Amino acid sequence: MRIGQIELRARRGTAAPEERDGRLVLQGEVPWTVTGPAVQVRQIAEGLGGLCERVADEVLLIDFGNAVGHFDVPVLGRIEVRSSKWSERDFDGMLADLMRVASALPFAGANSASLPFDRSVVTREDVLYHAFVYLRYIVCGHATRKERLLPALEAILREPHRRLERDGEQVLLERAHRPDVAGLASVVAGRSGLAPVMGWHAALPLARALRGHLPERIEERRAVTTRDTPENRFVKAFLSSAQGIVEGMRRVIRRKSRADAFDRRVLGDCEKVERALLPVVRHSLWRSVGPMVHVPVASTVLQRRRGYREIFQHYARLRLAARVPLEQNLVQSLLEAKDIAQLYEIWCYFTLVDCLRTILGEPSKAGRPRVDETQLTIPWDLEVSWPSGTRLLYNRRFSRARRGSYSYSVPLGPDISLETAGGSLHLFDAKFRLERLDLVMPPGELEEEGAAEEAEERRGTFKRGDLYQMHAYRDAIPRASSVWILYPGTELQLYAKNGMRLSLLDQCWPQPLEGIGAIPLRPSERPSVQSPAHLASSGNGDGWVLVEVLRRLNC
């Protein structure tokens, strides 16, 4: 394809760019070549940053790797990068699902950051990145209607919470209609100014009681409707906090010496969020609402009333977002580059946590993320555990020197390790990008296996090379009873140690379960509504499959 003087083509295969609605659509798995005038090639290279390599003045090689989403690139314009497996919608869905599960875990309270309401103090970038990821999702991402922020705000603006207040006012005596006991008591006590009266006024009972005097004014209390309620102050403060998150993200990006395609995308997201919230922020309602003094957590309006209930839920999730123990650089990568393979690995861990909650109930504790002055870090051996003794660990290290985590050969690090209450060990590895067969097979065997390999990939099944790595885990880690691939495909498979090959859950699985296998796992189209736990109860979807496999592992 030619774009002015620039030619864009795939380096291998027959893939071609597509034009849709004024943007270029490119396959992320395909490496691309750009040729054209040196000046324009340099501009494209500067815009794409680490996604490309300039091999000559007029030639540029582009490799999007695991990135998905939209990029604004000089000369080329708006580009949408898609994965053949998943789209940007799936990425946002996984991110929201991860936050839903992780924010509910009992991470150590002393180590959890919180999201301040004052927009001027959202300065810690670990809090900021997490908060912006969630804010972008509920404002202009692919959230369900129930999760979106704007419908909740619009419901509040249509019918804001009001309350009746008794307002005291000093009125002229002749204009008083319903003086109450408190007003009369202030007169008798002399707190109202008294003036002498003559004529028929002096004959009034009140004047006689006050020895020929009457008050010039009397306090009269009346019921007035006000919208300056704690609940409306809370929503106003929430909006201010959201603006502070957007402004903070802008500051982070603008501190960089040179903005690349990722930075421009985040700035574009900032503009979208700000533009969407602006009509609500400028609404006349907030002029009559004062500053928030405290969060009215006990308010039944915040807990039950439409609009307010959703805002309160978003507030809680934004504050809890900082507790998700992900390294700042990792969250920045997920935010800017949308590294879908990296996110898939983390999402698989928290999905396993969610499925185990379906079986075992709520966990008793979650491991302590390490905290320093700038970030929360997800460590090796991050652990979520249950009262029964079941433990789920992320990035557990196995080596010759580690007692209880022993590998008799080289150090190994499966993504997820599950220890059941009975003491059995089961390992899981997330495989979004399936490994090439030539990494584990000599080239001479590759041609013979090539046709089968391509057929497996087209069907969305797992590659054989991944099974060989599972064999390596099981052989080198003596405690491992079973080793599993988690992958975004369609085929459930178990190669049992006794020689059986099983692919259906209604088959008779051996006990104890030993062997290697693969489990399909991908988010549903509405991940935050149809979580794996929900799917498990309904008997549908990948979450149900995973729950049933976990049951067979005696969880």
Strand and helix layout:
Blueprint: E1 2-3, E2 6-10, E3 18-20, E4 23-27, E5 32-35, H1 38-48, E6 52-56, E7 59-62, E8 69-73, E9 77-82, H2 88-102, H3 125-140, H4 149-158, E10 163-172, H5 181-188, E11 194-196, H6 205-209, E12 213-215, E13 217-226, H7 230-254, H8 261-281, H9 300-304, H10 308-321, H11 328-336, H12 340-360, E14 365-366, E15 370-371, E16 376-377, E17 382-385, E18 391-394, E19 416-419, E20 425-430, H13 443-459, H14 464-476, E21 480-487, E22 493-496, E23 501-502, E24 515-520, H15 532-538, H16 541-552
Parallel strand pairs: 4-9, 20-21, 21-24
Antiparallel strand pairs: 1-2, 2-5, 3-4, 5-7, 6-7, 8-9, 10-13, 11-12, 14-17, 15-16, 17-18, 18-19, 19-20, 22-23, 22-24
Structure, explained:
The protein is of the alpha+beta class. The protein has 4 domains: 2-82, no CATH class; 113-159 and 229-322, no CATH class; 163-226, no CATH class; 340-552, no CATH class. The chain is built from 16 helices and 24 strands. The chain has helices at residues 38-48, 88-102, 125-140, 149-158, 181-188, 205-209, 230-254, 261-281, 300-304, 308-321, 328-336, 340-360, 443-459, 464-476, 532-538, 541-552, and strands at residues 2-3, 6-10, 18-20, 23-27, 32-35, 52-56, 59-62, 69-73, 77-82, 163-172, 194-196, 213-215, 217-226, 365-366, 370-371, 376-377, 382-385, 391-394, 416-419, 425-430, 480-487, 493-496, 501-502, 515-520. It has a 9-stranded mixed β-sheet, sandwiched between helices. Strands 1-2-5-7-6 form a 5-stranded antiparallel β-sheet, covered by helices on one side. A 4-stranded mixed β-sheet has the order 3-4-9-8.
